[in-house]
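Help needed: design a sequence for this.
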């Protein structure tokens, strides 16, 4: 009896789906445009939202193409761990990953408003110190020494930090600390993470979250070399 009822329900559902299929098909164009924008709608739905600054899926529009390419390769080769991303890029060749990176590097969304930080002024002051001056006592260089004086990144492969939610930044520090995020050796961010205490991580990410990018923010074209710490993803 139960099997008969289940079969009836399944057949009924299939029949309804068949009847509704022409309506859905009629709503779609006969041929979808073969453009990178169309192909990458799934990526954009998480990473290129015009009015959303997601704490889990960071905005990647306008990031340097070399940085985006490196991250796609890192997911494909297991240096970064996120099953959905690994699934998306697992069988994509290098040439296509370069095309994806270039597409999003050239896609500049307007910056979103900075967030107010619910932390003590002393915490923000410590975060600003680390970002703008660093701390020689613990051998941590200033964020601006690598990420640009406006923290908008440097072409071709150093990412910007302004506009990223503190929760996302904290998660990335945690991934480096737990070795679930790695980069080409020498892995400079892994070294910096080891030198920073948890309070310092919270301070610098809170301060970064309060910084507002200007409307026409772009990655810097160059930065003083050599970098203050060797970085395999951004070789001299």
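Sure. Designed sequence:
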């Amino acid at each position: 009896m139960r099997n008969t009822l289940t079969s009836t329900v399944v057949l009924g559902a299939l029949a309804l789906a068949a009847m509704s299929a022409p309506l859905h098909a009629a709503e779609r164009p006969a041929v979808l445009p073969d453009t990178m924008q169309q192909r990458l709608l799934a990526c954009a739905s998480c990473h290129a939202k015009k009015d959303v600054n997601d704490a889990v899926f960071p905005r990647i529009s306008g990031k340097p193409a070399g940085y985006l390419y490196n991250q796609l390769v890192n997911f494909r080769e297991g240096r970064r761990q996120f099953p959905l991303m690994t699934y998306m890029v697992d069988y994509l060749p290098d040439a296509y990953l370069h095309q994806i990176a270039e597409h999003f590097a050239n896609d500049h969304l307007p910056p979103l408003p900075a967030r107010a930080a619910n932390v003590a002024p002393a915490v923000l002051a410590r975060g600003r110190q680390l970002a703008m001056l660093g701390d020689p006592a613990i051998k941590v260089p200033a964020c601006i020494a690598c990420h640009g004086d406006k923290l908008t990144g440097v072409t071709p492969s150093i990412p910007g930090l302004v506009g990223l939610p503190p929760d996302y930044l904290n998660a990335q520090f945690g991934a480096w600390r737990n070795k679930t995020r790695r980069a080409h050796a020498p892995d400079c961010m892994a070294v910096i993470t080891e030198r920073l205490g948890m309070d310092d991580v919270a301070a610098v990410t809170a301060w970064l979250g309060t910084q507002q990018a200007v409307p026409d923010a772009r990655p810097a074209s160059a930065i003083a070399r050599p970098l203050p710490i060797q970085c395999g993803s951004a070789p001299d």
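DSSP finds eleven helices and no strands in the chain.
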